[in-house]
TrEMBL record:
<keyword id="KW-1003">Cell membrane</keyword>
<dbReference type="GO" id="GO:0031965">
    <property type="term" value="C:nuclear membrane"/>
</dbReference>
<keyword id="KW-0378">Hydrolase</keyword>
<dbReference type="InterPro" id="IPR003140">
    <property type="entry name" value="PLipase/COase/thioEstase"/>
</dbReference>
<comment type="similarity">
    <text>Belongs to the AB hydrolase superfamily. AB hydrolase 2 family.</text>
</comment>
<dbReference type="GO" id="GO:0008474">
    <property type="term" value="F:palmitoyl-(protein) hydrolase activity"/>
</dbReference>
<keyword id="KW-0007">Acetylation</keyword>
<comment type="subunit">
    <text>Homodimer.</text>
</comment>
<keyword id="KW-0276">Fatty acid metabolism</keyword>
<dbReference type="InterPro" id="IPR050565">
    <property type="entry name" value="LYPA1-2/EST-like"/>
</dbReference>
<dbReference type="GO" id="GO:0052689">
    <property type="term" value="F:carboxylic ester hydrolase activity"/>
</dbReference>
<dbReference type="InterPro" id="IPR029058">
    <property type="entry name" value="AB_hydrolase_fold"/>
</dbReference>
<keyword id="KW-0443">Lipid metabolism</keyword>
<keyword id="KW-0256">Endoplasmic reticulum</keyword>
<dbReference type="GO" id="GO:0005783">
    <property type="term" value="C:endoplasmic reticulum"/>
</dbReference>
<protein>
    <recommendedName>
        <fullName>Acyl-protein thioesterase 1</fullName>
        <ecNumber>3.1.2.22</ecNumber>
    </recommendedName>
</protein>
<keyword id="KW-0472">Membrane</keyword>
């Protein structure tokens, strides 16, 4: 289901405590698995929301001397002008869109689904024709940013709510990347719907304050409907 490996394990899921009327699909970062985020999300869960944390396929990653590790696509470098794995990014986004379609088939409309996590969540939200409730982008950047139009996008998610979070001590994806990404986002979608939060002393990780901001965003954009 995920990436290029059709035998990737099934996602880690935190089921809703009652009937699920909304879903959060959360994508982990490089070298991680869905289990870490499923545990973190279980700590902030709402009873009507299902949390789906897929696992990336294991593949050689150029950035890490071609060592095989869980990754949604190949990462060649982490500077703004690094070459990007365009085919891999697009394929991974199609797999995320298939996960959204699966939840729609399960009875959760796409506008009751939030995408979250790594860079792939931002790219998918801005390229899908499925109207989403929002996107949470943590410690990341917008892949293939040069492929987007200058100025506002025209798709169904041109008014999507975005929560972007970044640690000010991130040694892997510098805060500058987050700042540049937020400026790009504000030129593409309704800037009033873009929130950028930074966390003092946080590295390429998460913290309690960030998780509370994520919970608040999910609760606001996926309120109970019954």
């Amino acid at each position: 289901m995920c990436g290029n490996n059709m035998s990737a394990p099934l996602p880690a899921i935190v089921p809703a405590a009652r009937k699920a009327t909304a879903a959060v699909i959360f994508l982990h970062g490089l070298g991680d698995t869905g289990h870490g985020w499923s545990e973190a999300l279980a700590g902030i869960k709402s009873p009507h929301v299902k949390y789906i944390c897929p696992h990336a396929p294991v593949m050689p990653v150029s950035l890490n001397m071609n060592m095989a590790m869980p990754s949604w696509f190949d990462i060649i470098g982490l500077s703004p002008d690094s070459q990007e794995d365009e085919a891999g990014i697009k394929k991974a986004a199609e797999n995320v869109k298939a996960l959204i379609d699966q939840e729609v088939k399960n009875g959760i409309p796409s506008n009751r689904i939030i995408l979250g996590g790594c860079a792939l969540s931002l790219y998918t939200a801005l390229t899908t024709q499925q109207k989403l409730a929002g996107v949470v982008a943590l410690s990341c950047w917008l892949p293939l940013r040069a492929s987007f139009p200058q100025g506002p996008i025209s798709g169904v998610n041109k008014d999507i709510a975005v929560l972007q979070c970044h640690g000010d001590c991130d040694p892997l994806v510098p805060l500058m990347f987050g700042s540049l990404t937020v400026e790009k986002l504000k030129s593409m979608i309704n800037p009033a719907n873009v929130t950028f939060r930074t966390y003092s002393g946080m590295m390429h990780s998460s913290c309690i304050e960030e998780m509370m901001d994520v919970k608040q965003f999910i609760d606001k954009h996926l309120p109970p409907i019954d």
